[in-house]
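Weekly structure sync, notes
Attendees: PL (lead), two postdocs, one rotation student
Agenda item 3: pending single-chain targets
PL asked that the sequence for the first pending target be pasted directly into the notes so everyone works from the same version. It is reproduced below exactly as submitted, 880 residues in total.
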Amino acid sequence: MIHSSESIILRTKTSIPALKPNWVQRRRLVEVLEKGTTGRLTTLCAPAGSGKTTLLAQWIHSSGCRSSWCSLDSRDNDPLRFWRYVCHALTDAASPAASVRIRELSQALPGLSLPVFLDAVLNELAALEERLILVIDDYQVIREDSIHANMAYFIDYLPDSVHLIFSSRIEIPFSTVKWISRGECTEINAGTIPFTLEETFDFYHRSSDLPLKTEHVQKLFHRTEGWVTGLQLLAISLRSQKDIDLFIEQFTGNHRNVADYLFHEVLGGLPEDILEFVLQTSLLERMDADLCDAVTGRDDSESILDKLRNWNIFLVPLDNDQAWFRYHHLFAQFARSFMKRKKPGDVPGLNRHISECYAGRGLLDEAIEYAIAAEDYSLADRLLVQHLPDVWQRGESVSLLRWFDSVPARIVRTPEMRLLHGFILLAAGKLDRSEAVLKTVEADHENMEASERRRLILSGLLFMKSNLLFYSGEYEAWYRFADGIKDRFLPESPLFYGFNYNRREPFVRRTEFGLKGALSSDTEVIGSRFIQVLESKGWQDTLITLYMNQTLAEGYYELNRLQESHALLLKVDRSSATGQIPGLSVPNRLMQARLYKARGQHRLAHETIEQAIESVVKQHLSESHWLHYLRAYQIRLYLMEGKVLQAKKLAGLLPGFSPKDKPALHQEYVYGTLARLLGAQRREQEALHLLDLLKPQAAREGQLSVLMEIILLQALFEAERGQSASALGYLHEALQLGEANGYIRSFVDEGAAIGELLRKYRDQRISADDSQAGLCPGAAGDEVSLVYVDRLLDNFTPQTAAAPAQNRLIEPLTRSESSLLELLARGASNKDIAQELTLSIGTVKVYLSRIYAKLGVTSRTQALIAARELELKTADGKYG
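Predicted structure, written out during the meeting:
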């Protein structure tokens, strides 16, 4: 699943509804809405057909404010889909620069947790200079509790420049009491929104050429209680009445279902071919002429839609061009029920046909929904398999799970589909259900005859159980299953082979796959065994194996086991798959550069980053977060070398980032870099402010390695400011976190200043009275072992602090390899080298691979730099 796909956004869901001609001006409610914008929230809650959408559209069109609109439907119960649509709506009204950044944030999902994402969106909104209105229409369709909880958080921190309006048939399902009590919430409810008598007169005057008397209008108003849709239905029905006086006299408003009665009157008055069109298209949630033609088999849908619009038959325009429409919700519900009563046998086939029409347009979300409605589960499964990679990349696992769960238990699904179902359940955290599904797949596998399909099922099971391992921790059960597989090599299951574990982070250890920085001896043993088993089945180049190797390499680096780390980094780098996945290749190159820097090979570190930047730009990712991470590390390199001016100049290549920002955690690596730059410019107070904003976010997300960096920087900057006690307090906090996870390089990479603080910390601890031992600067129960402090200090010896290049090779070069290195230094091509040394080009490539491996590099340029830094002499006695 290495595809990347943005969610298809339906523009009609974020278009402000067009106003109908002859609309009634509702000045009293418009004034309420206008006054409400001084607060943060307005709720408009009233039953269907009350005129909520029309009222809001009328106000927005007349207000002159920057306004955005988001219409919801039942599919928006997926949290990521919901917030993507909210973001898309916001981009219609925000400034161009803010719109670009908000759009990038929505595309970053699911690489961000929702709290981090919401913080980032709120930061963008806080920077807006003009007032912005956001309307969320039909909120009653949202039933997902997590969306309600995140929306309450969003409202709590909404900046003053943004006003949020909810339109819903029911009360908002989260408490609004606190905002009401502060005067920050305006309410319009079912008792306020009906037409007044004056508005009723205006309505019939504008929308009807009927000869209604004053007493007629008064009676209709009182009998409908100003219900907007009831009045509209009556206006349509009255056109077909021969005796208006008798009809109004007999209409008491006490019908068991006034709407059903009146809708029946409307449908009964339509010509037969128009009625057939309305019934068939009533199954559509939104439509244009082309879609109506495809569904009905007609070629005159545009003409019929024009007639319905002119007759005011509850057709709601969804865009200013009036190309897309929907039926009024109540009318659509009635028409669908009428269709099911009149032609029950036609509905499944029509739903199937609609599914195929949507699929033909590439709208697979809708296609799947209609296939399920048609109870054509084989069609639904085919569409699911086709659509799953894109939906998964969008992170909309809630939608996937709902689709899978929509198939009744009585339907027997293929083992492949059950594997997918098990994986979606696992991703949703439903471990028990996932394991139960996998057991049925295992049983199917046991009963299958030997075949390629059987081996693919087994391959999928190994992948699934390997991922389940991260959640369950049942390592022995996994070993037994893996060891029981007799096949020497398993085929790469196309459904799972390319699953990408990192879409946002600069280092894999910061992802959930990398346990967010947690380290232990168990994780090392398990990781190594895991890789060994997967590679024994021929999965050396699968992303799960490469990611595991990268994670282990990053862990080895933190534990200061640099040689083991480097070997794994080169192993990952050599895989052809790595270069195609920036979530793997960028962390790999960043780690190689960090390792070269740790060894004192500064030029190699710079060269590695420059090569990585070239690669990212070639992949057209020049505006992405991946490039920002690489630029940020370049800045860090310059700062470590004391080149502050070069670092400051390079910081100009990070557009949109400023120390004055309110940073969000998903950009921590860049903001952490800016904090370092501020510190180098003796602007410690500004740097500390940035870190103070990032720290609680990192703690909330459980990002241990991120938190460690922040705390150590706080210690360093406080020490620079002469705040020794505060610096030691932060150092104590870092030591607690570091000791629990065995961290070493996090401390060592910060250089001599941290070493100095560590010695000061140790001296204070030793000189403390027995009664205070272990309590300074922490509190009882917070002791840090001095053994751990001493172990860290052992890595701050003059030799390691200076980090010189290691003047030895992993293995000495042979004379032939030295000769080849000399030719490399002269700029010879592979062909030139082959001719000079009378070798085949293939043999030259083999020699080059050996040289790269011995030097611990991956390219010609790096090989020459390494040769110079290691002071290697070529065959003629000169330095490479």
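Discussion points:
- The first helix runs from residue 27 to 36.
- The longest strand covers residues 162-168.
Action: rotation student to compare against the earlier draft before next sync.
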